[in-house]
Write a structure and sequence with these properties.
about 260 residues; alpha/beta; Rossmann fold; seven-stranded parallel sheet; 8 helices; 7 strands; about 50% helix; globular
Length: about 260
């Protein structure tokens, strides 16, 4: 379908064909439920087949189990979506993982695992989804990054670097896809109450509930934002931290590390 101009806002999800990865829990699951309730046709993907089937029964989404680290798996899901819906309007590449680094036992394999999901997994997803989005109406591509991408945080060498790479990818896609009337949105949450953050062994300032996170994401779509960052106070603190001289920023983060 040709478009004369890009969609500026997405307030009405009725009839939108949406693919969400990482939909078996956390933000992805909550988004899938909410968008299905609002009338979208939701294709929900994750590795956890049992959780996806439960989501399908509960919310009426289309469960499409897959592994974002497997290119062939993602291309196969895209073909299933094409057969069922013909096209996609919105992609929300949400699948992600986190492992923390112990510099006393530095492990490159940990980095490979994290990047395989958080970066390569999004690349596989985008490759699979772009032809479907080009045939759709909204042409909206969104990726879930992290506020951790803005600073070098303690123990987050792998996670933060993978999300920084994702942010760069989305920024570049935004430039290159503008001529095709795409919208590209980077979603950068702070701490959200999910099974992933439940495993953290440190204080998580200003952590918010998953439903509040979904509210903020959908508000961002409705406002047509290229960047959806939240919660505001946490984002402001991190951005202020990034403006400090490196030596001062390092001292403050060292203090955080000692406290943890």
């Amino acid at each position: 379908m040709s478009m004369d101009k890009p969609l500026r806002h997405l307030r009405d999800w009725r009839g939108q064909r949406v693919w969400i990865t990482g939909a078996s829990s956390g933000i992805g699951r909550a988004l899938a439920v909410r968008l299905a309730q609002q009338g979208a046709t939701v294709f929900a993907s994750a590795r956890n087949r049992e959780a996806l089937m439960a989501l399908e029964r509960e919310a009426g989404v289309h469960a499409l189990p897959c592994d974002v680290t497997d290119r062939a798996s993602m291309l196969g899901v895209a073909e299933t979506i094409r057969a069922r819906a013909g096209a996609l309007d919105v992609l929300i590449a949400n699948a992600g993982t986190c492992e923390y680094v112990d510099v006393r036992a530095f492990d490159s394999a940990l980095f490979a695992r994290v990047f395989a999901t958080n970066f390569a997994g999004v690349v596989h997803t985008v490759e699979a989804a772009l032809p479907l989005l080009r045939a759709g109406n909204a042409r909206w591509l969104a990726g879930v990054g992290s506020s951790a991408a803005w600073n070098g945080l303690p123990r987050a060498e792998a996670y933060g670097a993978s999300k920084a790479a994702l942010h760069y990818l989305l920024d570049s896609l935004r430039v290159d896809l503008t001529r095709e009337h795409f919208r590209v949105t980077t979603i950068a949450p702070g701490f959200v109450e999910t099974p992933l953050t439940d495993r953290n062994d440190f204080a998580m300032p200003m952590r918010i509930g998953v439903e509040e996170a979904v509210d903020r994401i959908l508000d961002g779509f409705a406002a047509g934002r290229d960047a959806i960052d939240f919660p505001p106070a946490f984002v402001a603190a991190l951005k202020l931290l990034s403006l400090l001289p490196v030596s001062l920023r390092n001292r403050l983060l060292q203090r955080t590390l000692r406290t943890a």
